[in-house]
Amino acid sequence: MSTNRITGTARQVGGRLRSVAGRAGHDAALRAEGAYEEALDAGSHVFGEARERAMAFADDTLESGQALYGRSMQALSRQASVHPLALVVAAGLTGAAIGWLLTSSSRR
After folding, report:
1. Phi/psi of residue 2, nearest 5 degrees
2. Where exactly are the transmembrane stretches of this chain (predicted)?
3. Hey, CA dihedral for 35, 36, 37, 42, is it positive or negative?
4. Residue 95 domain-assigned?
5. Is the distance from CB of 44 to CB of 4 less than 8 angstroms?
6. Does any domain span residue 88?
7. How far apart are CA 42 and CA 49, in angstroms?
8. For a tag on the chain, would you pick the N or C end, based on fewer CB atoms within 10 A?
9. Whole-number Å distance between alpha carbons of 30 and 37
């Protein structure tokens, strides 16, 4: 639980208490202050919750990406061991294509 959520909840309760005290004493300024604090602290609470959810989503995304990367590297390793000549030819063609692109762009 983040400090934003804890602080927001505590201040929200304080705002409600001020609002109730203002209603009991019919003090408009105290009621307005309580309502303002309650709204401000509700926002802080929601911000803390949204931040926690975003962090959890980012963590889940990172874990999924790492797992996918690991599986793809395993698949590539299997294919490289089954077809080593095809891997060498593909690497050579890729290098030739990059060299051709670099030299053709410098001639212009």
Report:
1. -85, 160
2. 82-102
3. positive
4. no
5. yes
6. no
7. 11
8. C
9. 10
Q: Is residue 45 part of a domain?
A: yes
Alpha carbon distance 19, 43 (integer Å): 17
Task: Tell which phi-psi region holds residue 2, choosing left (phi > 0), alpha (psi between -120 and 50) or beta.
Answer: beta
Whether 107 maps to a domain, the answer reads no
3-state secondary structure 62-98: HHHHHHHHHHHHHHHHHHHHHCHHHHHHHHHHHHHHH
pLDDT, tens only, 35-78: 777 777 778 888 888 999 999 999 999 999 999 999 999 998 89
Number of domains present in the structure of the chain:
1
Q: What is the span of the domain harbouring residue 76? A: 3-83
Based on DSSP, count helices (H) and strands (E) in the chain, helices before strands.
Answer: 3, 0
pTM of the model: 0.48
